[in-house]
Here is the input.
Amino acid sequence: MTDNITSVGGGSRPEAGVSALKGRTGAGTPAETRGNTTIADGVVAKIAGMAAREVPGIYNLGAGMARAFGAMRERVPGAGAGGGVTRGVKVEVGERQAAVDLDVVVEYGVSIVDVAGGVRTNVISAVERMTGLEVVEVNVAVDDVHLPDEEEEAGPDEARVR
Here is the structure.
């Protein structure tokens, strides 16, 4: 199957926007290539966020203030639905490529280098498999280390990622 991926904008890094996988048309072309598929930035961000959270050693995603605001937003009925998945995740989707920036909190005692490598591998694999976009970079910013005796600032109600 040969889909073409296009989106709005361009530049050295993929431009933020919506990517579209354009298919061929006409009789004789396979059914799966007839028509267009559009993938929004938010979809790529959710995939990347879920993939990053699956890596052992990741405690949470998001910088300190983002985690604090996210925890408050999740407590408001109807306001926090799905927002936690993309907290700490920024994506830029270009014509055929995507770039991902992640803010993470790691568990104390893990190798940050190994965890970052695992995050990159898992995010690239998931995004490329699910979207067909080439992931050109995954930047991981380690914002904090979670110590075993620390309680989350939001309290015991907030579920731990791993």
